[in-house]
UniProtKB/TrEMBL annotation:
All copies of domain GST N-terminal, residue ranges: 3-83
Spans through the membrane: none
Family label: Belongs to the GST superfamily. Alpha family.
The protein, known as: glutathione transferase
Gene: LOC116487562
Length: 223
């Protein structure tokens, strides 16, 4: 056995992408097992490895972990990206949950019916610029540090950069009113492990396209 974590999911972003981001930021190499058909998912389910009959599933340290948030917490804790004490952890949790709420809208966007696309895009822009990004702009401005919590890289920083880049793919000028976030994006993109992940050929998955939507719809029941 290689000892590398093994990720089971489709070959696309979905719910696995923040896990890929966090492992990459921690400098951890991983292997991927791509589910390509509904039959393959059903076989995995029959095999009994998916606790709730769902992916993402990550094999790590002898465990077969499911539930995205549990997996992320484990990786963040293991690789020192989860604060130095309970209070820093509480902040990281609050920031991550907020960003996850925004990312939920981004993740579901490709599945919007054509007639709802414009409205859903406007809603993502509105929530990003009026609710979520102002919070992080203010935090960074107030403490004047490079990272959101404890003056060192944490899970919250990684999730925020992922969210900024994902929203920018849809709304390129979204950071125009957020100078702190622009500087944050530049600094975070230059953290060596992240810089590597942002380069072509990494395990980072491309923006969702029609093929991705068709693949997801052919394998999963979206709810
Ligand atoms: N709470 C779980 C988690 O966070 O891990 C939810 C996991 C989940 O919904 N998994 C889906 C699944 O395995 C795949 S992600 N479904 C099994 C089934 O039988 O349908 C599906 C998804 C994508 C993009 I991709 C947007 C929304 C959902």
């Amino acid at each position: 056995m290689s000892g590398k974590p093994r990720l089971t999911y489709i070959n696309g972003r979905g719910r696995m992408e923040p896990i890929r981001w966090l492992l990459a930021a921690a400098g951890v190499e991983f292997e991927e097992n791509f589910v390509e058909t509904k039959e393959q998912l059903e076989k995995l389910i029959k095999g009994g490895d998916l606790l709730f009959q769902q992916v993402p599933m990550v094999e790590i340290d002898g465990m077969k972990m499911v539930q995205t948030r549990a997996i992320l917490c484990y990786i963040a804790g293991k690789y020192n990206l989860y604060g130095k004490d309970l209070k820093e952890r509480a902040l990281i949790d609050m920031y991550v949950e907020g960003i996850t709420d925004l990312m939920q809208m981004v993740m579901m966007f490709p599945f919007s019916p054509a007639e709802a696309k414009a409205k859903n895009l406007a809603s993502i822009e509105e929530k990003a610029t009026k609710r979520y990004f102002p919070v992080f702009e203010k935090i960074l401005k107030q403490h004047g540090q490079d990272f959101l919590v404890g003056n060192r890289l944490s899970w919250a920083d990684v999730q925020l950069l992922e969210a900024i880049l994902a929203v920018e793919e849809k709304v390129p000028a979204v950071l125009s009113g957020f100078p702190q976030l622009q500087a944050f994006k530049t600094k975070m993109s230059n953290v060596p492990t992240i810089k590597k992940f942002l380069q072509p050929g990494s395990a980072r998955k491309p923006p969702p396209d029609e093929k991705y939507v068709a693949l997801v719809m052919s394998i999963f029941n979206l709810s």
